[in-house]
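B., you asked whether I could sanity-check this one before it goes into the benchmark set. Here's the sequence:
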Amino acid sequence: MHFYNVIKDLVVEKPIELFFDMDGVISSYDAGKPLDFLNKRPLKENIKKIDEVSKLPNVELNILSICKKDFQIEEKNIWLDKNASFFKKENRVIISKESNPGISSADLKANYLKSLNSNNQIVVVDDDNLVLKTIMEKATNVIVFQDSELID
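And here's what the prediction gave me:
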């Protein structure tokens, strides 16, 4: 309930655009083959908590995920449809490193968040400390949470 209560308190100030990473946050990070997202195990407790947060007023759920290869974008969307369909298709940002060579995952996410032109609060939940640090440095208007905040 902790994460739910934190978001509930934040949304009192103004609406929230809440971005979740996939790998390690709502799906297992290392299950299956490295490029086989379809068979990753859903982290059901985290998904359940996020679904509860999705029902709060003025909270928009988004996915912000990186993949190695272009074909994984479709795989991640199929996985979301099956395991966390409350993430609307239009709110899924899945960026391929194959299409963005030489740019780190942390920079891809920070650059995307920095480019948002929103009057809402932007909140990110990720399991990668380097990603969170880079976002804090480059997209200073973003509130960041480690995925461990989902665990009560």
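One thing to flag: The longest helix spans residues 71-83. Otherwise nothing jumped out at me.
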